[in-house]
Write a structure and sequence with these properties.
The structure holds 2 protein chains of 2 kinds.
Chain A lengths: L5 E15 L5 E15 L4 E5 L6 H8 L7 E6 L2 E2 L5 H7 L3 E4 L13 H12 L5 H14 L16 H13 L5 E5 L7 H18 L2 E6 L2 H7 L2 E6 L2 E7 H6 L4 H9 L5 H6 L30 H5 L5 E4 L2 E3 L7
Chain B lengths: L2 E14 L2 E14 L3 E5 L6 H8 L7 E9 L2 E2 L5 H7 L4 E4 L3 H4 L6 H13 L3 H14 L5 H4 L9 H13 L5 E5 L7 H18 L2 E6 L2 H7 L2 E6 L2 E7 H6 L4 H9 L38 H5 L5 E4 L2 E3 L6 H4 L1
Classes of the chains: A alpha/beta, B alpha/beta.
Chain lengths: 327, 324
């Protein structure tokens, strides 16, 4: 089953960054994504979590080939997307959609809501008549909780939550098989966040789609995902089933991340033990040798500086990349 | 415990080309010595403007009424000179975005020293020494070397530490923190929250924590006030409020926040959207989104009634808790 759906293998995205040289530039690779592998099954949500600069957005874009991969493969229904030419890629993208973080910036301000939602139909269903398109758009608007009579309004006339619903309607109108959601609710107020998260979960259930849900919010990821992938400086730290990773995180980074999230309960929040990390994420331009997390890791030893830990199985459906997870 | 700040019936409105915008409406709030008061609300609820008024930082088109008493003076009637003496010295404020609140072309050592030179008339060398000591106090690594760095050379978390150090230079009685960790990553947020807790405990600084994040409030605040549509709809001691929220909006906010510590099958949602301050609904501002709405809620605005010590709510439904 997973054989033929989405398989990402050893994906690398490196950006050349000018690091010196006056006349002749010297470039170093910024390793935004550095050897990430995972599978995604039909109807499944994989949550991708990490802090800013960990490469989670780049990973989402590289899966859709919005950013070219430096190395590795993205195998979609048996075809390697990285090997396709532009025309083939456009054809494949009918089933691959994305929802962005900033709801207003991702909508063309000069197009009406109706035109925005209809654009994928104009591209991929050219035979459709205008009336058919309009009917489908109105239906989709209703499905995502927008009033169809707002079809002729412009993005600035909508609130942030409503703009995000337009973005979701645009992504869903072709009934894609995979939707990458890049921080879809982080720009929204708490009461609106819940509405959009519920909408995404309903759509997933009804349309049977797979979601790659990229977020820095571990509480939302826990709610929406089946499996969770933890990224740090472009590498996978831990990849596990939701129940397993939240109950028994094995990687020191995952443990620190989870313990840092404030719980809206004063008794629990004040009683919990925290793994406090010191310092900030190092620059991805100069990642530490060996394990990239070792500079902030409370359990780091000599081996962590010398050897890159590989993902190993720590339990059923639970992989971790750490030299010391079981010590 | 003595009172540090007392806000009485504060109302702030802005004149705009499209008419008056009621940002803050009849807000009263107490901050006592050494305590942390959390002010929670969604965007546009008036939580920031309440304290912008206290700091005299409102935009020019603002009209203010009410009173804000701080250490014996009314901040709303104080002139610029009196305010300047208090700000930075007795009250300090830190903001969400540490990059835009620091001067980009000034080394951080100088920015920190400036506070002392300005307020205390301390010499440059002494001010620099104290700046370094304060940076170390807020656990800023390699303080000596970094005094000569510019803000852009620091990470977000370090910049926020500089802001906090600057706020504490004169040992103020009150620190206003407006979304201090919203722009930070979760592991860095934990560090900054720990630091704020330490400041409260060791220096006895009263902290006003303005945030949309209920988790942040749960960890740090002693008392909480929830704002909606420019008004305080509920306030109480933190344990009370989270244990038994009395206002439907507070209940909704808590229910729609995804939790890390438990599995929820479906998130409860508050239908609709936060109100527009330009055209607030009549009666209770929350009534269009409230599950328990009655005719009375649409016609008559509930007043904030004190139900117990520190505890108050503005809701017509007395039987709410019993009904649940």
């Amino acid at each position: 089953m997973s054989e033929s759906f989405l398989q990402v293998r050893d994906l690398k995205v490196h950006f050349p960054v000018r690091t010196g040289g006056i006349l002749i530039g010297q470039y170093s690779p910024l390793k935004a994504v550095d050897g990430v592998s995972f599978d995604l099954n039909p109807g499944e949500t994989l949550g991708v979590v990490g802090e800013s600069g960990c490469g989670k957005s780049t990973l989402g874009r590289a899966v859709l080939q919005l950013i070219g991969a430096t190395d590795g493969t993205v195998s979609w229904l048996g075809t390697d997307l990285t090997s396709l030419d532009k025309k083939e890629l456009i054809a494949a993208r009918e089933n691959l959609q994305i929802v962005f973080q900033d709801p207003l910036a991702s909508l063309d301000p000069r197009m009406t809501a109706g035109d925005i939602i209809a654009e994928p139909l104009r591209n991929y269903r050219p035979a459709m008549t205008k009336a058919e398109r309009r009917k489908m758009v109105a239906g989709m608007m209703e499905r995502v909780g927008l009033l169809p009579r707002m079809i002729n309004r412009y993005p600035h006339e909508f609130s942030g939550g409503q703009c995000q619903r337009i973005g979701i309607a645009r992504a869903m109108i072709l009934h894609p098989k995979l939707v990458v959601c890049d921080e879809p609710v982080s720009a929204l107020d708490v009461s609106i966040q819940a509405q959009v998260v519920n909408l995404l979960m309903d759509l997933q259930r009804d349309l049977g789609l797979s979601l790659l849900f990229i977020s820095h919010d571990l509480a939302i990821v826990r709610h929406i995902s089946h499996r969770v992938l933890v990224l740090y400086l472009g590498r996978v730290m831990e990849l596990a089933d939701k129940a397993s990773i939240y109950a028994t995180p094995h990687h020191p980074y995952t443990q620190a991340l989870l313990s840092a999230v404030p719980i809206p309960d004063p008794v629990k929040e004040r009683a919990k033990e925290r793994v406090l990390l010191t310092g900030d994420i190092p620059s991805p331009l100069y990642p530490p040798s060996g394990c990239v997390f070792r500079t902030r890791c409370p359990r780091a030893t000599a081996i962590c500086a010398d050897e890159v830990p590989q993902l190993e199985q720590a339990g059923a459906g639970h992989d971790v990349a750490c030299h010391h997870w079981n010590t | 415990m003595s009172t540090v700040l007392e806000i009485n019936h504060l109302t702030v409105s802005f004149d705009t080309p499209d008419g008056a915008v009621q940002a803050v409406n009849d807000v009263s709030l107490l901050v006592e010595e050494g305590e942390c008061v959390g002010l929670v609300g969604e965007s546009g609820s008036g939580k920031s403007q309440t304290f912008m008024a206290a700091m005299g930082l409102l935009a020019d088109n603002a009209t203010v009424s009410g009173a804000i008493h701080f250490e014996g003076s009314n901040l709303l009637t104080a002139n610029e000179k009196e305010l300047n003496k208090l700000r930075g010295e007795r009250i300090a404020m830190i903001f969400q975005d540490p990059m835009t609140s620091l001067t980009p072309h000034m080394k951080i050592g100088r920015q920190l020293a400036e506070v002392l030179i300005e307020h205390r008339g301390v010499g440059k060398a002494e001010a620099r020494k104290q700046a370094r000591a304060m940076l170390e106090r807020v656990h800023f690594p390699e303080a000596e070397r970094r005094l000569d760095m510019y803000p852009h050379e620091l990470s977000g978390g370090l910049r926020q530490r500089v802001m906090i150090a600057m706020a504490l230079m004169c040992e103020p009685a009150m620190l206003i923190a407006d979304e201090p960790t919203t722009a930070l990553d979760v592991t860095v947020q934990a560090q900054i929250l720990d630091l704020l807790m330490e400041i409260k405990d060791s220096l006895g600084t009263a902290i006003v924590l303005i945030t949309h994040d209920l988790g942040v409030v749960a960890g740090l605040a002693d008392r909480v006030a929830v704002m909606y549509g420019g008004r305080i709809v509920e306030k109480g001691a933190v344990a009370d409020m989270f244990e038994s929220p009395a206002h439907p909006y507070t209940q909704g906010l808590l229910a729609c926040t995804p939790r890390l510590d438990e599995d929820i099958t479906a998130l409860v949602t508050i239908p609709g959207q936060p109100p527009n301050a330009q055209s607030l609904p009549g009666g209770c501002s929350f009534h269009p989104r409230c599950t328990y709405v009655t005719e009375r809620c649409k016609a008559e605005r509930p007043i904030l009634e004190t139900t117990a010590k520190y505890r108050a709510k503005a809701c017509h439904l007395d039987a709410l808790e019993a009904a649940e």
